[in-house]
Amino acid sequence: MMLAHPAVLRDLLTRYDALHALHAERGDEDARQRLADVSYTLCVSTGTRDIETALHHARRQLARVEADRGPTS
Length: 73
Hints:
The protein has one domain (6-67). 79% of the residues lie in helices and 0% in strands.
């Protein structure tokens, strides 16, 4: 399976977290649609079918990338 670039995943996770908070705060149609869009993109990018699994896979992939880089000075 192809893996999304870590920068893309990082951006999607950041957008998801911000939109999730916005939707919880405002709950309007615009926020809901934007959250649905980024959720769909995360699912496609991780090869999954639901957002919870997509979030898990994206975070796990980013953790592996960070671990492979080793400590930064």
